[in-house]
């Protein structure tokens, strides 16, 4: 299954019906709902999904629709966190995620992709990015900065991880009753949850639950560029739990480019996961032609894997 995320036009196209039609015109049979959608857009999209012969969305992100009081342009930022040490905020994040899960049931969506939050630590990402952009990736100063950043994270991560555990305990109960899969996603930044090791800890804790792993190729590549973790390790270690893949290319450290327009070696990537796994192109940059070419590239690589 190959899908396109509504990230492509959710902010640009306010009319949900037109938004849906634009995505279908790109040649995709399936659509994924990103966290950038307003409830008004979703309500207008629903009749299109219910037409005879149309597939329901393949997955949805929390929090979708956007949280009241925020705007589509800032939905990449997490305003409430499943990892929050403020219990009222954490419970609100759980409640809003359950709302997304209920929307999934209403729209016959089988998988909800979760953003779990972050560790509240001093963000050294900009320093790491500066060193990378100055060509210092292979030098001692870069390695030292990565070590310092991750050590600072370790000082505060346990309490936030415990908060995530409490949130997931509640969400897994809801998912079991709703017969949904909830998927934890690898994140790009070192202070976000889960990092590479935390994925394993979470599956140890909730083994046998409806929880699965969602792998973002661009996030893994970003972490490799910044010296945090080799991109291939995530899929090698957590393939047992894999339910879906986000396909986005990187141009240097910029996300959301169409596959084939950036730095990622896509033949190598496609060789790492099953051909029949759910795949979602998550694209923000580039024109329509670049998106279509990205779809065609992925379709050709899928066919190569199947043959």
How would you sum up this structure, described in words?
The chain is α/β, with parallel strands linked by helices and 307 residues long. It has a single domain (2-119, 165-306), classed as Divalent-metal-dependent TIM barrel enzymes (TIM Barrel, Alpha-Beta Barrel), CATH 3.20.20. It contains 10 helices and 10 strands. The strands form 2 sheets. It has an 8-stranded parallel β-sheet. A two-stranded antiparallel sheet has the order 8-9. A hairpin with a 2-residue loop joins strand 8 and strand 9 (254-257). Helix 4 packs across helix 5.
Task: Describe what is shown at a glance.
It is built from 10 helices and 10 strands.
How many separate structural domains? 1
Largest sheet: 8 strands, parallel
The name of the CATH topology is TIM Barrel
> What distance lies between the first and last C-alpha atoms, to the nearest angstrom?
16 Å
Low-confidence stretches: none
Structural class: alpha/beta
**Based on the structure given, which CATH architecture is correct?**
Alpha-Beta Barrel
**SSE sequence, one letter per element:** EHEHEHEHHEHEHHEEEHEH
The share of residues in helices is 40-55%
Whole-angstrom Rg? 19 Å
Strand content: 5-15%
Give the class-level CATH name: Alpha Beta
Task: Provide the CATH superfamily.
Answer: Divalent-metal-dependent TIM barrel enzymes
């Amino acid at each position: 299954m190959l899908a396109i995320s509504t990230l492509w036009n959710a902010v640009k196209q306010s009319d949900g019906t037109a938004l849906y039609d634009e995505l279908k015109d790109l040649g995709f049979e399936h659509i994924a709902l990103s966290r950038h959608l307003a409830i008004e857009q979703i309500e207008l999209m629903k009749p299109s999904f219910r037409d005879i012969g149309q597939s329901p969305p393949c997955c949805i992100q929390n929090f979708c629709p956007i949280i009241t009081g925020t705007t589509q342009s800032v939905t990449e930022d997490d305003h409430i966190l499943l990892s929050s040490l403020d219990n009222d905020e954490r419970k609100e994040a759980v409640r809003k995620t359950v709302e997304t899960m209920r929307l999934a049931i209403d729209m016959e969506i089988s998988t909800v992709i979760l953003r779990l939050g972050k560790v509240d630590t001093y963000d050294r990402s900009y320093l790491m990015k500066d060193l990378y952009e100055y060509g210092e990736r292979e030098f001692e100063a870069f390695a030292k900065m990565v070590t310092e950043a991750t050590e600072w994270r370790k000082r505060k991560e346990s309490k936030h991880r415990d908060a995530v555990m409490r949130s997931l305990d509640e969400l897994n109960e809801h998912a079991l009753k709703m017969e949904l899969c909830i998927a934890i996603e690898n994140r790009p930044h070192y202070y976000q949850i889960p990092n590479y090791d935390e994925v394993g800890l979470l599956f140890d804790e909730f083994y046998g639950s409806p929880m699965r792993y969602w792998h973002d190729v661009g996030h893994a590549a970003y972490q490799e560029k910044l010296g945090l973790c080799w991109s291939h390790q995530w899929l090698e270690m957590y393939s047992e739990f894999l339910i879906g893949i986000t396909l986005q290319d990187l141009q240097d450290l910029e996300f959301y480019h169409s596959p084939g327009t950036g730095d990622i070696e896509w033949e190598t990537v496609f060789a790492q996961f099953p051909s029949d796994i759910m795949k979602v192109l998550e694209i923000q940059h580039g024109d329509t032609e670049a998106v279509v070419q990205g779809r065609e590239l992925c379709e050709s690589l899928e066919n190569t894997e199947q043959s």
